[in-house]
Known about the structure:
Radius of gyration: 19 Å
Order of helices and strands: HHHHHH
Strand content: under 5%
Number of helices: 6
Number of strands: 0
Largest sheet: none
Distance between the termini: 30 Å
Shape: elongated
Helix content: over 70%
Amino acid sequence: MTGHPDAAEMRERYARLAEGRRVEMMEGLVMLTGLYTAISPWVVHFHATNLNLAVNNLVLGLAIAAIGLGLAMVPERVLGLSWMLVPVGIWLIISPWVVSVGHHAPAGMIANNVVIGFITCALGAITAAMATMRRRPRP
Length: 139
């Protein structure tokens, strides 16, 4: 195999992949955050009057989990998309007031979305920083 014309290129590609796998620790956290966001309406017992907020959390949770799954499966393609977690986290923070217009969201729902939103923003900022560091040329 060492005599193969593509052996050096394959070794270099494998070294780049192994070096860029620092994001592995983040992919699980992003996926768990997304799955919790998706099931949080049932965990926190959102009321039937706040069905819009429940659907909002379900859809955003599945989107966050999909980004986490993408980080696990094809990190070289999805790592650049991880910055999208920051605006999603901001939306999660403000959504109890925006989506629940006409209904007062209970304190538990607000606290749930604020905590999940901050965690999502932090994970997005960290993975975006990892993507930036990965793209930076080495001396």
